[in-house]
């Protein structure tokens, strides 16, 4: 008598494991990739901001041309980048 109950329990467990492996595991992987991608994106953005501020300070302090040229060059670069991004919008 106990043999058929074990078989039923095993078949139910196999069905649940199969459904879980085909639904939950891929969803967990997708979410892990999305979270890792967003984390890397935020790190790159923060690094870009810190690097641009550092380069600005370096050029402003160590070039003899003065601060007006630094503001002109960096303002022009960022303005051109903004105009490019604005032209690519939909």
Provide the descriptors you would attach to this structure in a database record.
91% helix, 90 residues, mainly alpha, rod-shaped, single chain, 0% strand
Short description:
With 90 residues, this protein is mostly helical.
Describe the secondary-structure layout.
Layout: H1 2-62, H2 67-87
Helix pairs in contact: 1-2
Task: Describe this entry's structure for a reader.
The protein is mainly α and 90 residues long. The protein has one domain. 91% of the residues lie in helices and 0% in strands. It contains two helices and no strands. Helix 1 (2-62) packs across helix 2. The chain starts with a helix and ends with a helix.
- Mean of residue pLDDT values: 89
Q: How would you classify the quaternary structure?
A: single chain
Stretches where pLDDT is under 50 for at least 5 consecutive residues are none
- Total helical elements: 2
Order of helices and strands: HH
Strand coverage percent: under 5%
Tell me how many strands there are.
0
Helix/strand-derived class? mainly alpha
Through-space gap between termini = 69 Å
> What's the main sheet like?
none
Radius of gyration, in angstroms, nearest whole number: 29 Å
Q: What general form does the structure show? A: rod-shaped
């Amino acid at each position: 008598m106990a043999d058929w109950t074990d078989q039923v329990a095993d078949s139910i467990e196999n069905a649940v494991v199969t459904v879980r492996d085909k639904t939950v595991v891929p969803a967990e992987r997708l979410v892990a990739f999305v979270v890792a991608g967003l984390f890397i994106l935020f790190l790159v953005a923060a690094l870009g901001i810190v690097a641009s501020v550092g380069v600005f300070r370096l050029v402003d302090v160590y070039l003899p041309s003065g601060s007006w040229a630094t503001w002109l060059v960096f303002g022009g670069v960022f303005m051109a980048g903004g105009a490019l991004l604005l032209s690519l919008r939909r």
